[in-house]
Design a protein that fits this description.
Shape: rod-shaped
Number of helices: 1
Helix content: over 70%
Largest sheet: none
Structural class: mainly alpha
Order of helices and strands: H
Radius of gyration: 69 Å
Length: about 170
């Protein structure tokens, strides 16, 4: 019995030592695992914090970009309206210019026709002036002839009267 008691005590001692060693081993194992887990948690928490910071920064950039996009869309809309207004004005001015060019062409054609008419009228005036000059010349020549004929008649009448060849009242 003593042997069994000694063996049981030894066995119990061995079991207690084994449990203590196992407990120390498990404690050490779980301590290192917990420490690794804690370190991993701290690293992951740091990464998550960095990711949140990056996410907030990206969100801020996105908000800024959205704001700029809205401003650009407003400007584009405004510029589009201005472009349409300018385009309408351009079309009006172009139509007015085309009409003015057409009026100018018509006026130039009318001017050319009037100039031709003026030249023709001036030529007619020159021709009529020349004709008037010729007719005036003929009139002067005929008046000279007439005056010569009257002088001849007077000479004849004087001759007739001086020779008493006429009847009274024929030469006056």
């Amino acid at each position: 019995m003593a042997y069994i008691k000694k063996n049981v005590n030894l066995f119990l001692l061995f079991v207690i030592v084994l449990i203590v060693v196992a407990l120390a081993g498990l404690t050490s194992y779980y301590h290192s695992t917990y420490q690794n887990l804690s370190t991993s948690y701290d690293v992951k928490l740091s990464e998550i914090t960095n990711l949140l910071d990056d996410l907030n920064e990206q969100r801020s950039r996105l908000n800024q970009t959205t704001y700029e996009l809205n401003i650009k869309e407003e400007r584009e809309s405004e510029l589009s309206g201005q472009y349409l207004d300018i385009r309408e004005d351009y079309d009006k001015v172009r139509d007015d210019l085309d009409k003015t060019k057409s009026d100018l062409k018509d006026t130039q054609d009318s001017l050319a026709a009037t100039e031709l008419s003026l030249i023709s009228s001036q030529n007619q005036i020159s021709a009529l002036t020349a004709t008037v000059g010729e007719l005036q010349s003929q009139i002067n020549s005929l008046e000279d002839d007439k005056a010569d004929l009257y002088n001849q008649i007077d000479d004849i009448c004087d001759y007739i009267q001086s020779h008493n060849l006429s009847q009274p009242g024929e030469c006056n």
